[in-house]
Automatic annotation (TrEMBL):
<feature type="signal peptide">
    <location>
        <begin position="1"/>
        <end position="28"/>
    </location>
</feature>
<keyword id="KW-0716">Sensory transduction</keyword>
<keyword id="KW-1133">Transmembrane helix</keyword>
<keyword id="KW-0256">Endoplasmic reticulum</keyword>
<keyword id="KW-0812">Transmembrane</keyword>
<comment type="pathway">
    <text>Cofactor metabolism; retinol metabolism.</text>
</comment>
<keyword id="KW-0844">Vision</keyword>
<keyword id="KW-0012">Acyltransferase</keyword>
<dbReference type="GO" id="GO:0006776">
    <property type="term" value="P:vitamin A metabolic process"/>
</dbReference>
<feature type="transmembrane region" description="Helical">
    <location>
        <begin position="196"/>
        <end position="229"/>
    </location>
</feature>
<keyword id="KW-0808">Transferase</keyword>
<comment type="similarity">
    <text>Belongs to the H-rev107 family.</text>
</comment>
<comment type="function">
    <text>Transfers the acyl group from the sn-1 position of phosphatidylcholine to all-trans retinol, producing all-trans retinyl esters. Retinyl esters are storage forms of vitamin A. LRAT plays a critical role in vision. It provides the all-trans retinyl ester substrates for the isomerohydrolase which processes the esters into 11-cis-retinol in the retinal pigment epithelium; due to a membrane-associated alcohol dehydrogenase, 11 cis-retinol is oxidized and converted into 11-cis-retinaldehyde which is the chromophore for rhodopsin and the cone photopigments.</text>
</comment>
<dbReference type="InterPro" id="IPR007053">
    <property type="entry name" value="LRAT_dom"/>
</dbReference>
<dbReference type="GO" id="GO:0007601">
    <property type="term" value="P:visual perception"/>
</dbReference>
<dbReference type="GO" id="GO:0042572">
    <property type="term" value="P:retinol metabolic process"/>
</dbReference>
<keyword id="KW-0472">Membrane</keyword>
Amino acid sequence: SMKNPLQQAASLLLEKLLLLVHVRPLPAGSGEDPPPAPGYYDTSCFKRGDLLEVPRTLFIHFGIYLGENRVAHLMPDILPALTADRRHIQRVVTNKRLILGVMARTASIRVDSVEDFAYGGRVLVNHMDRLFAGQVLGSEEAARRAEKLVGTTAYSLLWNNCEHFVTYCRYGAPVSLQTDKFCETVKMIIRDQRSVLASVLVGLASIVCLGLAPSTTLPSILIPFFLWMAG
């Protein structure tokens, strides 16, 4: 079904203002921080079909373990829209590729090593199972679903992110609990009319600056939800 134009506009604004959610921290200097060397993670406790989580700055990154140190995960990435050369696409996604992918709403469901997937973060295994009691599919079914979806896909923070991908694979339904919780929290905040006014003013200022300033704070991302609720 067609989405409300206000919802589409709000989604676009929100995604631009939340670009920094996905960006990996960079070390001092101009280069990208390389992922750990192979063997950094003990994969002996991972089973094919496991749902892996890596807590990041504000959100959690998700993937499905395929066995043999391979993880399928959805990453915003501009490169699949620009080239069909798998050698280039398969390289670790840089911050620049990721940011442009978010802006272009393009992503790739790709297979990487655990090291490239986690990028130095702590890996949690199947923590979401307790929230989907009775809905967990067989491990092989989850892995096969992930493998079938590998390739270029559309990206949306609200409707098609890495959590939607893994919940479809492991539980049979694409949902994003962290996005839903975030939306509900923001809705509660903007019910205060004074917060709405402040949000609009600060949000407009942020949009003028493309919403990418490191000082971006919660009020600057509330305006998309104000528009979304109004629709």
